[in-house]
Write a structure and sequence with these properties.
0% strand; AhpD-like; Single alpha-helices involved in coiled-coils or other helix-helix interfaces; 9 helices; mainly alpha
């Protein structure tokens, strides 16, 4: 993976400093989560980006038809493929809070196969969707459907890829510092 010097200098914004359109979203996130994630404070410079991310993320969480463990498999698969240390750390903690088995999360973090065959198919299909830019093989699609997922859920994976692309790329460009709340699950592509 190519690394580059970070020339970006945008500050992490507080709700009071945020532009109109981001202020309310930051206040809501802080109230809902009990903290203001650094990624949101970074995204707040662009109200359109932050609102699109928050809306898409919430829609995926509420309407995708995937259970919390499957949702984290999808988010971690995308973030691992994209090499996003911030999202890997944050979603590992979210997964812990959603009672995702640690062995599932740890397998995703290290790139090892998941012991659960259905979740492993979900991981491989999601990774293929990112790697092929939405052109999985017929075999991969058949395997995805054969374990009980639906064609409609392919669209939900596209939604997850869209929101994770927004977050992964924001974190890459701005080298977003991992919040203390996520630090115990920090991840780096070089060591995992």
């Amino acid at each position: 993976m190519t690394t580059h010097a970070h020339l970006t200098t945008l500050d992490l914004l507080t709700p009071e400093e945020a532009p109109e359109g981001s202020r309310e979203l930051l206040e809501d996130a802080s109230a809902t989560l009990g903290m203001l994630p650094n990624m949101y404070a970074e995204m707040a410079h662009s109200p359109g980006l932050l609102s699109t991310y928050r809306f898409g993320y919430d829609q995926f969480r509420r309407l995708s038809g995937f259970n919390p463990t499957e949702q984290e498999v999808i988010f971690l698969a995308i973030s691992r493929y994209n090499g996003c240390a911030y999202c890997m750390g944050a979603h590992s903690v979210i997964a812990d809070g959603n009672k995702v088995p640690t062995e599932v999360t740890d397998a995703l973090r290290t790139g090892e196969p998941i012991g659960d065959a259905k979740l492993e198919v979900l991981n491989l299909f999601t990774t293929s969707m990112v790697a092929t830019r939405g052109r999985p093989s017929d075999v991969e699609l058949k395997e995805f459907l054969a374990v009980g997922y639906t064609e409609t859920q392919v669209l939900e994976i596209l939604l997850a890829i869209s929101v994770k692309t927004l977050s992964n790329y924001t974190n890459h460009v701005f080298d977003t510092p991992l919040d203390k709340a996520f630090a115990h699950r920090a991840w780096t592509a070089d060591t995992e």
